[in-house]
Each structure stands twice: as C-alpha cells, then as structure tokens.
Structure to design on (582 residues):
C-alpha cells in the first residue's frame, strides 16, 4: 500500500520524501505490532488506524501541493481506502464501517457542511476530519466486526456440541475428523460405540435415568481416552472416539478399559442398572481418507460386534466390507422381490400323533428368486427384519396361503387348521386388522404363530387388545420355537396361547439324551395342565414320533411325514396318513 502511494506522488510531481517519511514510520510501527501478535484485536485496530492515517496524509499532502484541486479525488480515495482497510480485518467490517461512515458524514453534512463539502477551497481541518474520525470509523468498524466474529465463533462452538453431555455432536465429530484427515501422514482410528440395553433402561427406569447413563458414559470416555482423542455423541446412545496416530496396543488397552467399565452395575436412585457396550473400529490405515467412509466402515464393524451379544469390539476388515455389500444386495433384491411378487407360500402338514392323519397345515415363506431359485427364510428373514420388510412378507404369505386353502375347499379338499408365521411386530402394525378383515372366509381355522421373542412380559395394552381382537375373530394364537428363549414360562402363564410349538433343537436329541426327554416331558405336561396344545416340529424319525406320542404331544410335524411342498404338490398329501405307533 505504501508503494502505491509513493507511485501516486511521483506521478503527480510531489516530493516522495514529503509523503514517504511519515508513511514509513507508521508502517514500521504497524509491522512491529503485526509480528508480535498478528491475530490480536489490538493489532488489527493498530494496523487499521495506521493504514488509514498514512493514506489520508499522503492524499492531503497531494491536495495541498495542488491548491485543493484534488478534494473530490481525496474523498474518492478515502472511501476506497476504508474499503481496503476493513476488508483486511473481516468482510463484516466493510458493512459496519460503511454504516458508521455514512452516519458520520450525514451528521456533518447537516450540521457543518463546509467540513465535508468545501465550496471553493479546503482546510487542513478536512484532514483531521478524515484522518482522525476516519480512523475512528475504521477502528469502530473493525471492533464491531471482531465482536460479531467472536459471537459467531461462540455460536459455532455451541452448534458443534452435544447439549446433554457437552461432547462433540455429530456435526462437530465430522468437522474434527475432516480436519484431522487433512494431514496425509496422520493415521486415524474411528471407534463407534453403542450402548446395549439402553432402551430397556429408558423403558423401565425412565428417561432421566437414561440421560444420567449417557452423561456418565461421556465422563468415563473422557477419563479413559488419550488426551489427544476427539470424543463425541453422534445421537441417541451412540458415541464416537477419534484416536490420532495411536498404536494398536493403545487402542486395545482403551477398548478393554471401556468394556470393563461397562460391565459394572450403574447405581441410579438406589437401584442397579446394567448395560453393555458394543464397539466398531475403522482405521484410515486402510487408505481411507473420507470421513463418511470411515464412519460407514466403523458402523459395519459395530454391526458385527453386536451379533454375538453385548460387550464386544470388532475391527473393520475387507471381509466385513464384502459381507456388507452382499447384505445390501440382498436387501435391494428383497424390495424388488416384493414389488415383483416373488414371495410364495410352501405348505407342510401337521399330523395327529395317534392316528397319523393330517390335522393341519403350516404355511412357510419361500422366495422364488429369479436367478438363485428357491430360497428359504433362513437366508432372508434377518435382513428383511433390518429393513422393516418382514411385515410385508408376512402379509403376502398370509394372503396367498388363505387364498389357496379357500380354492382347495371349493374343490372339496379340506384342512382343519392353517398356521401362518407372523412377526411379533405385527401386533403394533395398524395394517394387521385390515389385512385380517380382507381375508376371504374359509372353513379351516386360522392360527397365527408368533415367535416367543415377543417378550410377553412387556406386552402393551394395545398388544393385549389386538390379541383379544384376533381371538374374537376365531383366530388361534400360538407361540413358535418354544423353549429357546427367555419368555417361555411367562408366555404360558400370561398369554395363555392356544398352542405352543416345541423347537426342533429340543426334539432332535431326545432319543439319545434321557435328560432331554425329561425336559420335553416337563414342557408337555405343563402345557397340558394349562390347557395349551403342543406341536413338536423337526420330527425326522419313527423313534422320535413314537416317543413324542407317548409323552403326550398334541401334533407332530417334520420330514418324517413330509417336507414342505409348493401349493400344487401339497394336494397329494392332504389325505395322507402315516402310522406312528410301533
């Protein structure tokens, strides 16, 4: 800027010394302040005043040497100068200084117009007006802009913080990771942590207890993590820790400490609360430099960590990436399969244990995949549940199965019962009642088989109302896979189902394991005592069938009688009878 003024003086035939000496003195002083602390507000104001004064001195010297012929140019350069000065400090200074300058000149124009717009000559008071008050204008503009900037920085800080835990929020975590990735030599490890059984704490102890758990988790992570770690809560019960240039033994130590802490009971209001932690770990050492990709990989690892149960950690690998790709492919194909009507029912017969006659049918879901052929539910139900499509599959199988039974009844072929597997989440599906009401009437009694993971001890009033509504429409309520989960006894005493289906894992070892026979006997006798029928599935041998008949099972189902058949083939087996007794 000094060189610009010196050049201007030379072009107008003015002595360079008369302009450059004061400018150099002020410029050296300003540069000294700049080198001391260039980011301080004091330095910015000092530079602003110095530059403004230097400019105005040079311009007025030029105007003085030319008998005031350049007063218009002086005003023009004054505003140009102000714009350059304030633009250095902050773009907001341009606005604030402009407002201050306009107000200042406006007031002087109305009170003492000769100070602003001299008619024939000029006075050095104009210099003091523009140099002094102009510097004040610029200084005020920079100060106001700095205050606004600090306020915005404070708001920015607050916007990147989680209100409950004071950790970084999702936005702050992404910003921190993005900035850290700018260093190409840095190796970053992203740990995504999810609290297991947190929803149960909210449901049983209240949201205040849940908030306390979240705050305590934040506190423990801050205590256990390395000093250079970035820690945040990305939402809900999920936390993120970003470690920079950490060795794997340090990561292992940190993870072990966190998992060990999470196994301890948490005291709240005189009661013990228990929860676990699952951790997914991703590393930029795999040549990943995208924040979104790192988080995606950590989420994949977290998903795998939660599979065996709580309090596990999993490091992302290429194998997990391939599995995630396959799951995504299957998920997309499930959606297309529903659109293309590819899900169909297969039917397996249920038999009387004494006579061996067919007393019912169970409809089983199959996926008629266009390229992979017929696929069983074990290959798609889990993924369908994750993408909230299992209810749609249930509805399709239910509607098609009932339609087939109606067609058979019209042809003179009858089955006394049709059992259909239904996801327990359907009890809270508002479409369930409409689906049932739209089914065609049939002589066979409809039975809905709910898996016992329904957690009967947590049935809501609406769930119970829906069960009662189903029973009111002569629909049987049965529990599938009985004996493999925690709700078995509660289900029998609270729900009082019409029947339970004993899981094949209990049936398979009965012949060789006398203790397993005692378990089966206890289940069947308990159910019979409560007036609940029992169906044993997975019956594959004559010995199993005969044993279950002696133990008092109400119905038998399995490959000993026949495998599941498509609708066009099951008709041949409906009158089928097979001797069970020795």
């Amino acid at each position: 800027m000094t060189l610009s003024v010196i050049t201007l003086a030379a072009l107008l035939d003015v002595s360079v010394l008369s302009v450059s000496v004061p400018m150099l003195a002020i410029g050296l002083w300003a540069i000294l302040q700049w080198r001391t602390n260039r980011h301080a507000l004091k330095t910015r104001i000092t530079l602003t005043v110095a530059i403004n004064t230097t400019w105005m001195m040079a311009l007025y010297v030029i105007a003085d040497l030319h008998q005031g012929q350049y007063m218009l140019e002086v005003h023009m350069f004054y505003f140009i100068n102000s714009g350059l000065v304030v633009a250095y400090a902050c773009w907001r200074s341009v606005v604030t200084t402009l407002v201050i300058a306009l107000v200042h000149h406006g007031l002087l124009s109305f009170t003492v117009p000769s100070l602003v717009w001299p008619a024939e000559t000029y006075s050095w008071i104009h210099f003091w007006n523009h140099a002094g008050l102009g510097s004040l204008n610029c200084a005020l503009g920079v100060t106001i802009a700095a205050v606004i900037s600090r306020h915005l920085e404070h708001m920015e800080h607050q916007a990147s913080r989680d209100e409950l835990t004071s950790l970084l929020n999702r936005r702050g975590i992404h910003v921190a990771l993005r900035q850290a990735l700018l260093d190409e030599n840095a190796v970053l490890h992203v740990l995504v942590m999810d609290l297991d059984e947190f929803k149960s704490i909210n449901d049983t102890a209240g949201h205040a207890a849940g908030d306390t758990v979240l705050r305590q988790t934040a506190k423990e992570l801050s205590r256990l993590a390395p000093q250079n770690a970035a820690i945040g809560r990305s939402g809900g019960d999920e936390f993120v820790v970003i470690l920079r240039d950490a060795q794997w033994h340090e990561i292992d130590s940190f993870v072990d400490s966190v998992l060990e802490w999470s196994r301890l009971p948490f005291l709240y209001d005189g009661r013990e609360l228990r929860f676990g932690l699952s951790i997914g770990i991703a590393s930029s050492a795999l040549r990943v430099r995208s924040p979104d990709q790192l988080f995606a990989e950590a989420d994949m690892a977290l998903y795998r960590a939660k599979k065996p149960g709580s309090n596990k950690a999993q490091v992302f690998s290429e194998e997990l990436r391939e599995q995630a790709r396959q799951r995504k492919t299957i998920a997309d194909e499930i959606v297309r399969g529903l659109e293309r009507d590819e899900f169909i029912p297969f039917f397996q017969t249920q038999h009387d244990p004494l006579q061996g006659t067919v007393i019912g049918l169970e409809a089983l879901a199959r996926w008629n995949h266009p390229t992979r052929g017929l696929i069983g539910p074990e290959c798609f139900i889990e993924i369908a549940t994750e993408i909230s499509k299992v209810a749609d599959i249930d509805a399709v199988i239910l509607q098609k199965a009932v339609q087939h039974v109606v067609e058979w009844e019209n042809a003179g072929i009858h089955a006394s019962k049709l059992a259909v597997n239904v996801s327990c989440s359907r009890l809270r599906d508002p479409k369930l009642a409409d689906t049932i009401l739209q089914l065609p009437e049939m002589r066979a009694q409809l039975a809905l088989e709910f898996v016992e993971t329904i957690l009967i001890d947590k049935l809501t009033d609406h769930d119970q109302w829906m069960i009662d509504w189903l029973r009111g429409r002569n629909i049987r309520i049965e529990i599938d896979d009985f004996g493999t989960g925690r709700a078995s006894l509660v289900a029998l005493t609270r729900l009082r189902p019409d029947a339970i289906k004993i899981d094949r894992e209990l049936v398979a070892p009965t012949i060789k394991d006398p203790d397993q026979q005692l378990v089966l006997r206890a289940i069947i006798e308990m159910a019979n005592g409560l007036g609940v029928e029992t169906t044993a599935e997975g019956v594959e041998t004559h010995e199993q069938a005969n044993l279950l008949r002696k133990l008092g099972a109400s119905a038998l189902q399995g490959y000993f009688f026949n495998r599941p058949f498509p609708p066009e083939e099951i008709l041949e087996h409906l009158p089928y009878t097979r001797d069970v007794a020795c």
